[in-house]
Amino acid sequence: MVLQDLGRRINSAVNDLTRSATLDEKAFDGMIKEISNALVEADVNIKLVSSLRKQIKASVKFNELPARANKKNIIQKAVFDALVDIVNPHQVPYNPKKGKSNVIMFVGLQGAGKTTTCTKLARWYQARGFKTCLVCADTFRAGAFDQLKQNATKAKIPYYGSLTQTDPVVVARDGVEKFKKDRFEIIIVDTSGRHHQEEALFAEMQEIQAAVQPHQTVMVLDASIGQAAEAQSRAFKEAADFGAIIITKTDGAAAGGGAISAVAATHTPIVFIGTGEHLLDLEKFNPQSFVSKLLGMGDLQGLAEH
Amino acid sequence: LSGLFRNVIGGKTLTKDDLRQPLQMMETHLIEKNVAREAAVRLCSSVETDLLNQKTGSFTSIDATIRDSMAKALTRILTPTSSLDLLRNITRTIEKPDARPYVISIVGVNGVGKSTNLSKIAYFLLQNQLRVLVVAGDTFRSGAVEQLRVHVRNLTELSRRERVGSVELFEKGYGKDAATVARDAVAFATNSGKGEMLYDVVLIDTAGRRHNDTRLMSSLTKFGHLANPDKIFMVGEALVGTDSVAQARNFAKEFVDTKGQLRNNGVGMDGFIISKCDTVGDMVGTLVSMVHATGIPVVFLGVGQHYGDLRGLNVGWAVDKLMK
Ligand SMILES: Nc1nc2c(ncn2[C@@H]2O[C@H](COP(=O)(O)OP(=O)(O)OP(=O)(O)O)[C@@H](O)[C@H]2O)c(=O)[nH]1
Ligand SMILES: Nc1nc2c(ncn2[C@@H]2O[C@H](COP(=O)(O)OP(=O)(O)OP(=O)(O)O)[C@@H](O)[C@H]2O)c(=O)[nH]1
Ligand SMILES: [Mg+2]
Ligand SMILES: [Mg+2]
Prior knowledge:
Number of helices of chain B: 12
Number of strands of chain A: 8
Helix content of chain A: 40-55%
Shape of chain B: elongated
Distance between the termini of chain B: 18 Å
Radius of gyration of chain B: 22 Å
Oligomer: heterodimer
Bound molecules: guanosine-5'-triphosphate, magnesium ion
Distance between the termini of chain A: 26 Å
Order of helices and strands of chain A: HHHHEHEHEHEHEHEHEEHH
Largest interface: A-B, 45 and 51 residues
Order of helices and strands of chain B: HHHHEHEHEHEHEHHEHEEH
Radius of gyration of chain A: 22 Å
Helix content of chain B: 40-55%
Largest sheet of chain A: 8 strands, mixed
Largest sheet of chain B: 8 strands, mixed
Shape of chain A: elongated
């Protein structure tokens, strides 16, 4: 599972240090280096790693620690806080309300898992009593509408799309209008994959957004993304101002640090994670419990309360 | 910062101490380009071995010496030991007297661009006047069959207009065993041995699978045996970080022949297609990570979402991006 190896490694670095006989500054620096390497291997953005390293050093102030201080606790807390800080964006995601139309638009890079996740999320809301539907505004990718249609049919969720209309803005507008009229409560709009290097694709995303006026825009990120995560997610944030992130493919072996870096770069909360290819493979995400799981520090719960 | 790169002008015999800091910076530089740390560390240590106790050239700083040595190391690792001339291989295989269709299959993790890049290869083959059978071997993911049907329809239209080869789809819908579908497709292309073969090249798509799913991964071995492809290409995505190393290793190790030997002289697969290079700027490190992990060469780069967006690997181009 994502970030678990990372957690194990960080934990053992901290433990090695605090168990060792001489807890001197050299050993402390060594631990920080080991943690940094673990973060880099987990695809955390390299600049973010260096700022984390500084943050941990600054908050521990090793030289100034009184001789009798509980160094283990202080160091663990510093590492823990720094990590919680990354995944905790200090921002509350949009919460759909019953009895009104909530439009949710999906954006993201090619192949990230948008179409698959759209249906998973629709099913999630449907199971919680919302009247839910899907709009396919991907008119570019071959077979995109068939893909959404087959998923929606399996999940018994109404859908809208077109095999003839090639303008995604028109499809998105028509679909959302129709479903609003029919008093659907959750209207999820799937869009094509795109990347910031192609301006026309970003312009199209903004036009779709203007046409459907989403209450929430969700960026879908693949857990295996590497160093490009930061630049891409920043560009999506600037262009589409997404308010939530879903990380997919967390059932893979990737450590997920790239996706975490995107969270840090955009100060946007992760709301769900995808855990497989099937309809039910979606979990709600909670940053705090995630980090304590990550660090395998059940005994440190007390430290996490802030 | 410039103090770190002491500009020793010429004739300096390099010690471990001289090299430590600049090599550390070089490692960071490679990681910024999305080279997996494992590969970056190995490359840096090969540069260290290369330079230790060597004299820097006249008017050459340590920095420049290291850059030069790293560029060479990257060139070495990325340059294939034997060149793959796909078209020539195909021509030879489909020549009489024992002509048979040339079989290529595409594998990789979910969403990396297998089906799209398969269609780009089909386009490339069509331009070379070949008859192509596209096989819908992804019998799992929703829309996978229709996706290929649309590509084949588009490509048929293009080839008619451009008066080039011809292309058709072989599909058995969803839920079928992919290895069996592939085997049947190959038999169909050979006209089941009843005279002239019907297609020159069989291009088999497969379902995306994560490399830590042992059940789905081991089914690749059976697939390899039943489809018996001439070439197995794995699509790796330029966006992917460190996981690319494990992806490459775990896919390669599934492809053993019937005698239990890894295919292609012990490396398992025949080449990588690195997709989505247009989405990463200079951060093309994935191609280094995957080659480093397996010794399997990069044969194509995907540089966009259209049929023409497929390139051969230009090593100089890649090294320039990595050293920028
Ligand atoms: N293992 C796993 N696979 C997933 C998950 N989510 C999506 N996938 C797979 O990832 C691949 C791509 O998913 P799509 O939903 O088509 O991605 P997309 O973002 O809509 O792609 P484009 O529309 O082409 O940009 C498919 O093979 C999905 O089955 C997940 O959580 N786990
Ligand atoms: N920008 C860019 N996008 C690409 C490239 N290659 C593929 N894509 C896009 O990536 C997305 C996924 O491509 P697919 O070919 O469906 O990927 P796949 O590996 O077959 O996916 P699954 O079968 O679901 O595992 C599509 O939106 C493609 O258009 C490329 O070289 N550049
Ligand atoms: Mg999609
Ligand atoms: Mg596919």
